Structures
1.
Amino acid sequence: GMENAPDSIGKELFTEVEEILLILLKNTKSDITTVGDLATSVLNSAKGKVLSASMQFSSRYGEIYFKEKKWLSSIKNVFAEKLDRKLEPSTEFSFILGRYLPTLFWLDKEWTTENIDRIFVKEYKNHWQATMEGYLFYSFRIYKEIYLLLKDNGYYEMALKTQFSDSHLAERLVQHICIGYREGWEDLGDETSLISKIIQNKNVDQITEILRFSGSMRGAYDKETKAKAYKLFEVIFELAKENSGNKSFERICANLSNIFEIIDEIDNEVFEWLKFSARYVDKNHLTYQFVENLLKFSTKDPKKVGEIYLEMLNAGIYPEYKRETIQEIVKN
């Protein structure tokens, strides 16, 4: 309730908190455990809590008392010193930098931009990865300036080649790049773009996540972005067709069926994609979803739906659930 206190009392309380945090920042030792993922470990460590509290305090103080550069110099100076990982070897600090990167950018955009290669410190792989994991784990909203800062410095590309301990982080990374593509920060026609590199690298997990995530964003599409998503499916279909004999590509072939989520009609091109994908839908537990989607189009386009369903049967895939859905499709 400090913001509701009279200004003089509020400032006094803030000063007391600042003094306590500075003592804690100076004296709290790293006590991180390696049990579970890094996010949980940092969350449960004393040092992680102190660093988090310092960021949250800085943010609140900046909202109330500053207009331009909002970061309280005393705490900023401590964080600036700790950028030297020889002085601050804890991975908690690196993780917190990633977690609060948007906050740092808001507190002092110039300082954060100038020091980005000391925040994401390439020469210490464990620290670089901890910062990226902190950012990916907590990046619930993507900001254009931060996205381009990480992209232009090569951090996203490095992350695409990184083996994260948590598969959700690898998925979140691909989601960032899909959003970058949707927003126009990535160009599918540019071979050097991140979205193109994922496809060129033929990383099955990453391409599968592109298809899954693109299909899950129906509400985020307008006419232009829907056309972009369609183009993405088209490029991946060609890749899947070329590699259809490769067993590891079966999940990609199956996930092409996510095109159902962003179409209003089964045009001739999509019809070919769906007939192709129908032969693989059991490879990624998509059979139920596939049948449900076929039902939606079975009154509008029964002939094409029937042919797609036959492709599935001819591939030896015989769905049984839900029976009433299947009966409705046949009836239509």
2.
Amino acid sequence: MCRQGHVCGAVVGGLMAIGLAKGRCTNAEPPKAAMEAGTALQRRFQAAFGAINCRDLTGCDLSTPEGQERFKATNQHEKCTPYVEWAARTVVELA
């Protein structure tokens, strides 16, 4: 997310999809189903990959030019594809 190294974009996208699928219909309703599914997604991702933050997953600080170069030089984008695939499959299961 904007090269800050925080939560992996695959998880963020999954959380948005869960919110669309299970979010509240009115402001009076608590989004219990979305919260439970979103929490499950994050916990499962952490268990599957050992981290949830981009910086921890890639080992690169993308907020710096050096980190961006390291990301490119070590083909980290190839590492990201399984995260996205996993998140998409898991969201379908949870939603």
